[in-house]
Fold these 3 entries.
Entry 1:
Amino acid sequence: MSTVLVIDAACDLPPGFIDDRNIKLLPIAIRVDDQTYTDVKDAQKLTDFYAQDRLGRNHDAESIPYSSEQIERLFLDELVTEYDFALVQTVSRKRSPIYDNATKASHAILRSYHDVREAAGRDGNFGMRVMNSGTLFCGQGVLAAFTSDMIERGKAKNEILKLADAMRQRIYAYLVAPDVYYIRERARKKGDESVGMLTALVAKSLDIVPILSARGDDTFPVAKGRGFDASVDRLLRYTIRQVEHGLLTPYVVVSIAGDLSGLENHEGYKALQSTAASKGVTVLSCVMGLTGGLNVGPGSICVAFAAEDHEFDG
């Protein structure tokens, strides 16, 4: 049985990794003022987009995920004739309608794929499952990397589902954003009041920058620092300790909403790369997708890995 992994464009992974593993993408459209762009995993295009400051607070912007009808069309046109099973992993269902749209589409796809496969000369049934990652951006990337490993190793469908479901509950994703007020304003436009006005204003006025965790369909602060760089370095030092302690997957995923070279400005990032290499862990670094950058702001840095249950000890 041939299996394909499908992720949405909010998932942060290097384009080369996505291509090498033959991972398929559910696009997300980004509307900025009166223009619409497609969130693509092209590092140079993403870097150029951030460099032009198209996601600054002075622009009106929103993300537009694929509808259930668009997802259905994508599967029937491209996937049901090439694969026997598809596992779709989405950004947290509390942060986007993608999970619900994909679930609705799956019902229609499973009702109508037979004629399409028969016309293409493909025997047998097609199956699919939609999985809510419960996390965001790099957290999705860790889950996708782990799942693609299982597919590469030829694991059976049911084993892949069981292992991926267990792993998604062990993923720790963290975010440091230069401007908490930016996050608050973007969330407010979507009707999300999880970042209070007072918290945002106090953080801005005192230059207090929180480290946010995205886990279990929830987003919450776990620590804070005086200034963006201090919070990023604190997060990276904590990640290094987790790598030294031992991860559940050999990956740390890091993304930045801007030029990838910006990561090199942090000593903790260089130390993370060195420690990871000594422990057989791969650091997958990439430019944050436009969906992530839109919601958390240019310059934001996300880090994720999988580990046993623990509290943030940064």
Note: The first helix runs from residue 15 to 20.
Entry 2:
Amino acid sequence: MSVSSQLSRGGTIQRGEGLRLADRSDRLGALMAAPALLYVLVLVGIPFILALILAVSESTAGSLSFQFVGLRNFARVVEDPIFRRALRNTLVFTLISQGIVMVLATTLARILNTPFRGRRLVRFLILMPWVAPVALSSMAWVWIFDSTFSVINWTLRAVGLLGPREWLYWFGDPTLASIAIVTVHVWRMLPFSTVVLLAGLSSLPREVQEAAVVDGAGFFRRLLHVELPLLLPVLTVAVLFGMVFTATDLGVVYLLTRGGPYNTTHVLASYAFQQGVLGADLGQGAAIAVFLFPVLVLVAIGMLRVARGTEVGH
């Protein structure tokens, strides 16, 4: 057999093997999902298992000793008033910010789904908060809410909403500090939710919307009875990701207030960092960090079931 025929036969065999692999959807799917699964296992799974181990131990920073203590760390954090405040803040910040995000994202998505001049530029600008580094953007917000140079305070005074002797100390008052944190969370998550809802609006069947217009349905009736029910699976995914990102975020709270004033704006992530890393109590910090995990899992399962049921019904 000649060299050319062997090469031709070898190329045919290799091409045939490649085609057989492409035809096997199970093997091809597993092969393509392997890098993502490996990434999750190494960067998420192993640290999570380590956190569970630390949560049931008396481990401290700078010590290699490990003493199993069961659920003692969880009992200690539940009795801690600062932890209870952090848990409440986590839930309140997440729910309020995501409620505002969903309203604004739906409005922006509808606007951006309408053709107008400069729409691509507006879409690009809306994505900027999402791609900007959280440290850089949070430091910019620190200046915006600064007790002396706050551009918000100067604007409110310029329009007459603040008197000459009135001034808002954003990071010195627990309520104002909470408002500042929620504002930054809304600013960060709004681009992501807008893009997700915009993709959902773009995929809605035109026939259904045109039929609603022909039937005489007004704007709000089309929105509430036609568009939002069809967008429910996409909306559920946007809310789920937004809740997970907000509830587990450390950077915004730590860079803005560091949990102050007087530990009143801590969330679970920032308080776990303070206790586990800065306080060197790894066991208690890990217990705080994993405390919200079962709640997030149940929320995720419930929302995904709602989305799946909507898709089946549709």
Note: The chain has 14 helices and no strands.
Entry 3:
Amino acid sequence: MVLGIAQDAGYPQIGCSKICCAQVKEGKQAAAFPVSWAVMDSATHQWYLIEASPNIKEQLDYFQKATGNFFNYYPDGIFLTHAHMGHYTGLMQLGREAANTKDIPVYCLPKMAQFLRNNGPWSQLVQLNNIKIQTLTADSSTQIKSNLTATAFTVPHRDEYSETAAFIIGNSNKKYLFVPDTDKWSLWKTPLVSYLKQVNIAFLDATFLSSTELPNRNINEIPHPLVPETIGLLQQEPSLKTKIVLIHFNHTNPLIWNEEQRKKYSSKYVGIASVGAVY
């Protein structure tokens, strides 16, 4: 289940008065939380949260309501891709000033684990056993509770505090690829297409639709793959397009605020993520 679709800062973004964010203020578009998913195992009543966004409170409440309280309020584990604000800062809500949780497993790669252990306030979550770090090994499959397995692998990105992970999570029946943040596909050691062939659904970074969305920024400093580049990459493998669900939209990206653009790209057999959608 999709719990959030926006880039780290959410939608609308702080301080933005452009047409993209004015849509929300004028009541023409709904606000959107940063990227997050719930992976559910109904047979065991267990579920796992992918990314701990700054809006984790609202997302957990939404999940409970959407599932009729079928699952426990707090997840049976949390998977983190990297140490950028929209992907891990929600962990603070698990601390003693708030939920004061007990030993929630947090799955991440080694540098991310080291960052959490060695830097406050995250280190306090570890010391007080609010969370329990489960360090993953890149490119190795890990059995987690219930019948799910998870494989993390690194992707190129702006790695100031940690590496950046992508995940393949699933079971023998269905597998999901989560790539909310990456630099250009051409920088991947293993082609994206190889991973797409291993999974049923792939949630892919769609931060920007166009390189002109941020005229005051050097787009080379934020080299996310543009949506047309992602679609173009699959021209030789058209059947794989049906597996793709675009996610992690910047507030400037029309796919988060322009219904005509959403319909246009959906018609190209590329899924556009929406909150509450179940895959």
Note: The mean pLDDT is 95.
